[in-house]
Amino acid sequence: MRDYASPPLALMTIGLVMVTGVYLIAVMDRSMATLIGGGRWTLGDSAIGPLRSAALLLVQRRRVTERPDAPAWALAPALLTGLAAVALATVPIGPDTVATDPSTGFVVFSAAIVFVMIAVFLHGWSSNSALAMHGAYRFGAQALSFQIPFLLAMLATALPAESLSIVDIVNAQESLWNVVRQPLGLPLYLVVGLAVSFWGPLNLPDASDLAGGTSVEDSGVARLLWTAARAAMLLAVAAMGAAGFLGGWWGPWLPGPAWVVVKTVALLALLLAAGHLLPRIRIQRFVVTAWVILIPLALVNIFVSAAVLL
Amino acid sequence: MGLRSAFSHFAETAAVPVFAVAGGGAREAVGRLSQSPTVELVDTPAAATILLVAGSVPPSLNPALTAVHDAMPSPRGTIHWPLGADQGELPTTPSAPPIGPSADAADAIAHVFRALLSGAVPSEQPIQPNADPNPWRGIGPYGQGGSGMTGGTPYGRPMAELAPDRDGLRLDVLPLSVGPFFPRFPVGVTLEVVMAGDVVIEGRVTDSPFIGHESSFLAGPFLRALSHPAPVAEIELARAREHLRWVSNALVTQGLPALAMRVLRLAATVTPDDATSVTALIRRVRLLRVPQWSGAGVGRLAPELLPGLGLGPVSRAAGLREDARSTDPAYLALGFEPILGHASDAAERWRLRLAEASQSLELARRAGDRRTEQTGVVESPRGRLQAHDAPFQRLQPVIPDLLAGLEWGDAVTALVSLDLDPEEAGVAAIPSARADAA
What we know:
The structure holds two protein chains of two kinds. Chain A contains twelve helices and no strands. In chain A, α3 runs antiparallel to α4, α4 runs antiparallel to α6 and α9 runs antiparallel to α10. The radius of gyration of chain A is 19 Å and the shape is globular. Chain B has a four-stranded parallel sheet. A four-stranded antiparallel sheet of chain B has the order 5-6-7-8. In chain B, strands 9-10 form a two-stranded antiparallel ribbon. Chain B is globular. The termini of chain B are far apart. Classes of the chains: A mainly alpha, B alpha/beta. At the A-B interface, α1, α2, α6, α11 and α12 of A face α1, β6, α6, α7 and α9 of B.
């Protein structure tokens, strides 16, 4: 029998973690953009600027397009936020500190990732706009390509633990982190993680060549929610990367939860920097790379990991 | 104080989301504005609070300008920024007096923004009525059934139909018109495409709306050089800046707005003695493999299509020694040799423009007070420019072949790599006597 936090406590904790994490991502992203862009960085602007922009979106009146699929348009950001919350709920920050630790935590996390495709497609479909629909089409191709390598990279971490529980996967890294045990795992996970959270070079559905893609018609609260939901999904990917490959709470000197935060922030910094330094990858190149390189590499990773354990 | 007004008050000092329409003669000024930390240029009117109409906008673009205005969410405001041009009759009614020549545009925008949020200035009403252009005539309880439900053009858009795609399959195709204010293209470029999913089946760029429309570009150094000997140093510095601005726009297209901002800052301040800054930029862009990742094999133009077209970096990237500077004694005395490529794709055009930016700074540094000796034809950053004959019009016929079969992202990369400039086409159409007068 695994541990579960009481539902109100779990919801409150996850909500708090998501709000804090999304804010942290906004601050880090803005700071990186200012520094890389050669602008003058100030703590005040980086820390307060995102909040002011969010306040503006809160007072903007939502506009509608011609004949939108209104329920789906409203549902898409909520669905993506919910999926990020489900994914985050399975990430432990200590051996006994986790919102939910089902014996199949890995499966729960993977299911949340698979449904991201539905949320993004709904988002692109619902505004009845050509560029948004193109973004949705693109993500269809992207999602079909990233799901297998993503799940294989994650699945390899379950082998040393002999369990699908995320807590067990972290516990199995007490003596040796998976990033060392499976050197291919983390790079694969991060590449595909960018695709899952459609961020930076793999932000193909909301890309600049589509003037914003699936979010081209969003305004006001809808834009704020979608932006926050994307950031929450990036947070979930980074947090699971810290748990699955970087030993979660294991580490010297600092208390366990602090290590989880440090490792998650380090991965977030890496992912956000990739967003500012790597150009958008062409969808055709990504699809070919995923099927021809990433899936075979993920299979090699899982076979070698299994062989070492035997 | 209610929650809404508290949020409004807090948001008054946010970076102002501006959808900028950079009309004739306004591109450089809007580029400078985008460097202000108090302004954020956005890609879609849905994200904007302020519509900035800068420079001269041809009257034929008024319907599109109206649509952009009405697509902005409330609270919204419009600001006109003439930049010395006569803006004529615009469909938009500004929320404040036009920005004067000596005013700080970022301050003026922030002022209107604060007034909108505080309620001192009311949000603008839509210009057009919110009504279907083709009312739905279905008869069923869910609007289904009947005949001629939409008059064949639902909401002014044609229905998707079947056509063969690049693999010979018959798929749904959708005709689309992208522009004239699509953020990745200069104002006035309208791309008419037929898409099957993410693939362009056919596409063409419509004529420049600036043809026959007076533009502030008349004051530009390249046009001046058409009629009078001009300082080589001035021309080459302007060329380097234009190429750097192109690099900045191309970086935004590839999803790198922060790096693009750094390049734009460099473009605004670069001097002939800054060749090292440009060399460092070239090294960084190559290190990040931006041209290679985004443009290798994309937008390839067959070299046999190009001879005689004089398309500047586009021609030279195909290995053609076409450069009007090669016949100017002033440039020959400087030992000028055109830089040539061979791959004729978007990546090669990237490399060529970066190399030419560096070369132009070097020429500007060595030119002293030397002036051009050849008039009537000038090598603009986009190719051979003569009265009535601009690179934009010569590029138009090759675009359909270029776009057919490309995915949308590649099509945008390919078009951006051509550095289309409809405004230049307008200038070239003005009789040379007027150009002389300017």
